[in-house]
Fold this sequence. Notes:
The protein has helices at 2-8, 26-37, 53-70, 85-97, 123-133, 153-165, 179-191, 208-216, 224-233, 237-257, 271-281; strands spanning 12-17, 43-46, 74-79, 102-106, 137-142, 168-173, 198-202, 262-266. With 286 residues, it is an alpha/beta fold. The longest helix has 21 residues, at 237-257. Flavin-adenine dinucleotide is lined by residues 47-48, 50, 77, 79, 106-109, 122-124, 141, 147, 149-150, 156, 159, 162-163, 172, 174, 201. Flavin-adenine dinucleotide binds next to β3, α5 and α6.
Amino acid sequence: xxxxxxxxxxxxxxxxxxxxxxxxxxxxxxxxxxxxxxxxxxxxxxxxxxxxxxxxxxxxxxxxxxxxxxxxxxxxxxxxxxxxxxxxxxxxxxxxxxxxxxxxxxxxxxxxxxxxxxxxxxxxxxxxxxxxxxxxxxxxxxxxxxxxxxxxxxxxxxxxxxxxxxxxxxxxxxxxxxxxxxxxxxxxxxxxxxxxxxxxxxxxxxxxxxxxxxxxxxxxxxxxxxxxxxxxxxxxxxxxxxxxxxxxxxxxxxxxxxxxxxxxxxxxxxxxxxxxxxxxxxxxxx
Length: 286
Ligand code: FAD
């Protein structure tokens, strides 16, 4: 389970995938998992749809199969803000039934269009609910540049203590492009007395469509080297692929050199990108 993985290895190397939009496309995700398995990740995490329900079942189906059929440790993400207590309990039971032992507990983003009871306000409340059931280990999310609702980074770090207090044993960061923000953050988190391992979330930007969606919508700050790369290759798909992989490789090598507990690669379900990044860092992962 997750705690042991972090205890026995540094850096832990993990991959994140998301379920296909349609349940009928499940085969494609297992094709992706099959290719990602070659990279021998310490775990693969599977994201959770904002609305829970059927989307949550897809997450647990995929995570369950990753563990059972591929022999890779799996982490199922789970959100709570758009669900009732009954729905959350049902999902926890469903995950247990599929032998999922690790959950990334999340609040989720507030989606006003989703109606229904809102019995949970924050990720720590979901962690408490999971602890009541028992037998599962938990990870949580954290934000090197602060969560967008937080009034300050320090306030956000103080709030992080709630999920640690509720049993979260490892953290995975939001993506960032400037390693300096990660190093500053880890120092502050440790200064606040939080000792759990922190995996650095890295997303290689290799397609121009990601520039708008991920970069502009994320609040991640962009160092000059990054904005120059984007400007240079925005209209050159092959050039952007190579430059984006190269940027992520450099970022990860530097993170490992600085002693990061883990590297969590946001794969965007693209094994070719994960493969290319892995080739550039594998010597540091043994
Ligand atoms: P919380 O920890 O609840 O924090 C939300 C805000 O409330 C923060 O500003 C925090 O400072 C504050 N806060 C926290 N606890 C308390 C408290 N007890 N009292 C008062 N204030 C508090 N979203 C999805 O829908 N599906 C996914 O699969 C998914 N995976 C993710 C994976 C990672 C690694 C990350 C970083 C994010 C992911 N998200 C996902 C996005 C996430 O759901 C959003 O960022 C969401 O807005 C916050 O979730 P959280 O768990 O960090 O919330």
